Structure formats: structure tokens, C-alpha cells
Amino acid sequence: MSRILSAIGRRIGRRAVIPEMLTSNVRGLSLLSEDILRSDVEKWKNDRVVFAWQGEDHRPITKALEIKEGSTIFSIASAGYNPSMLLLENPTKVVMVDNNPTQIAWCMLYFSAIKNLTYEEFRSLVGFGEGATTTPDERGRIYDSLRGSLPSKALVYWDFHRDNMSKSGMYLFGNYIRLWGLGRFVPIAHSQETLDKFLSFADIDKQRSFYEEQWDSWRWRRAFQEALASEHFPAVFRPFMDLLAQKWLNRFLEICINIPNVDNPQIEIHLTNKISGKYGLPDFWRRENFAPIRERLDRFELIHIDVNEYFERTSENFDGFVLSNVGDVYSKGEHDQYVTRAIKRGKPGSRITYLSIAGTNKGWPDAEKDNIRVEQELSESLIQGKERGIFWDDLHIATLK
């Protein structure tokens, strides 16, 4: 499995991170500040966003943090979904950090849309629910209405990609869903009628029976395997696909026999490459959460910097950490350094969380075992039969002593 980790690290590192030491401010700046993006946009304007959709489930992460009013929380920025849901817990501040300039530019447009658009316009720009039927011309018009709110480098980036984003919507613009591509292979196994019925279950007992009796056929397992073996899936995974495919197929089974599909939009997006809104929406796109998130956008601080450099340079102390699965691309030693740097910036009693892709668990730094309490029981209670993401082995939780 260490071969998987090192290979994944090399591949993702090339795709997702600009390999330069940034000289960004370590203090937070407003979401649309001209000074956030520090690298030359001409070096990265051709790149697509990697994570315009993320496979993480914010619910167990948010519960694990036990955010109290007045808290200061650290989060990897990524596509901004996890941080936006943290705002609903009423923290004083959420610091978002990302080293990938395209992810920063993504967050700028995404949060500008929340700030300046109606819910219907936001839905059309992002491309979910009824907004999925928005024409490219109309989506382009909505984007144009936001151009004046974007700082210059983000504007250069999005102007360059305007036509492609207008065709797909923001969340289908990124690489993540296009590379996975399971939706292209589902018709090998099931008709549209069967797929629609499967996605519509709200009763878990009926869904479980349907899965076992109709969905989990040899054709379905073949479709799943072929999706992972396709040329669209990152080549770095292919030598290990016999192991990973079975792990991910088992996770899919576990999810589908425990969580109603109408409460898990990740199932629809994996099987259809879209969020139609017919079965359910992610919490961060629900109408009732749109206004509360908008009202608290000023609690965000967005920083373009390598996360390790940030922890080394900042004087901020945090009540909670969402470290995502950044450590998956590191060696064990690098992972331990990353987590240790976070621990050093935590207040007593603060919670640290991170995820690991199936088969890549690196645990906690041995040198910090006396400084943290590993919350294994809490982790199991939050993830077993509840975690809605396919790719994760575990949600790792620790409390600082």
C-alpha cells in the first residue's frame, strides 16, 4: 500500500499543487481581496479546478468538531463546501487555506455568487437542481454579472474558462467527476427506469431489499470495475485497482444498505454525474441554508499558501481543524509533520479531524500521543453506517489535551 501512497502523491502533487514556496500573508483577508492570489496567473490559468465537487461528507466532520459559538476553525479550502457548512454552527472565524490557486479562484467565484445572486441564479451558475437546465448563454450572463466582484487574477482565470464553465455549470467544470466517470458505465448494468427507482428510495429497508435483489448484479459489479479501469480514471491507480476496486465496491454496498439514497446526493452524482434535485440536495445547496451562509460570509478568511508553511508562520490558535485528506499524498513522515504542525496550533480541548482514502491510513504521530486523545469510539459512531462518501476508510478524530 505504500507504493499506492507514493504514486498517488506524485500524481496528485503534479496535478493539484503549484510547486512554489508562496510568500502569502498568513493573516486572513476578505474573500475577494486583490492580495490573496500571490502566484502569476499566466502559469495556472490553463488548469482546470481539481475539486469542483468533493467526496467528503461534512456531517460527521461537523459533528466531530463540536463547534461552540465563538470558535475559530481551520479548514482546507478545496471547493468551499465543508467550510460553508461550518458557518451554520456559528463560529467567530473560519480560516480557509489552499496551495492550489485554481481552488482559491473557485472559492472566490463560488462565494461571490452566494453573496451577490438570488438562490435561483446561484443554482443556475453552479448547475444543480433546476439550474442544471440553464442554457450556456444564460449561465454566461449570470457569470458576467459577477465579473466586477472578482479580483484581477481570479477574473483572468474565469474569463479564460468562461465558455466551458457556462456549458457545464461550476460543479461539473472540475476534474474530479470527469475522471471518476462511473455514470458512463451504469447503463451496462441497469436501465434508466431501474436507476431512477434506486435513486428515489427514502425507506432504507425497501432500498436494502432492492439493492440485494435487483441492483447488486454481476453486470453492476462489472460496470463498477470497468469504470475504474477506464482511460479516464487516473492511471496512477490502475496497478492497484484489484485492491482498491473491491474496497470501494464494499463501501458502496455499506452505504446503500444503511443510508437512504434520497439523503445521499453523492450516490446520484456518482451514478449520473449530476445533481438533478429530484431526489435530494447536498445540505450546502439547500435553499434554507443559502441565506444563513450568505449572512456569515464575512467570518471567512481565505489564504493562498502551502498548509505546512501556514502552520509554521501563523500565530492563530484554533478550536478545531478540518485537515481533509491532504495527508494522503504525503509519506508517513510528511503526514506526521503535517498533523503535528496542526496540533501545535490547537487550543487545549480542540478537535483535529482528517480523512484517509481506502487503504492509506497513516494513523497519528507517535511523538504526539501524549498530547492528544484519539477518539476512536466517536469516530466509529460517526462513520459506520453513516458516512456517505465512497472513498474513505476512516474519519480520524483526536482531542488535544
UniProtKB/TrEMBL annotation:
InterPro entries: DUF3419
Organism the protein comes from: Owenia fusiformis
Superkingdom field: Eukaryota
Descriptive protein name: Uncharacterized protein
Pfam entry (one): DUF3419
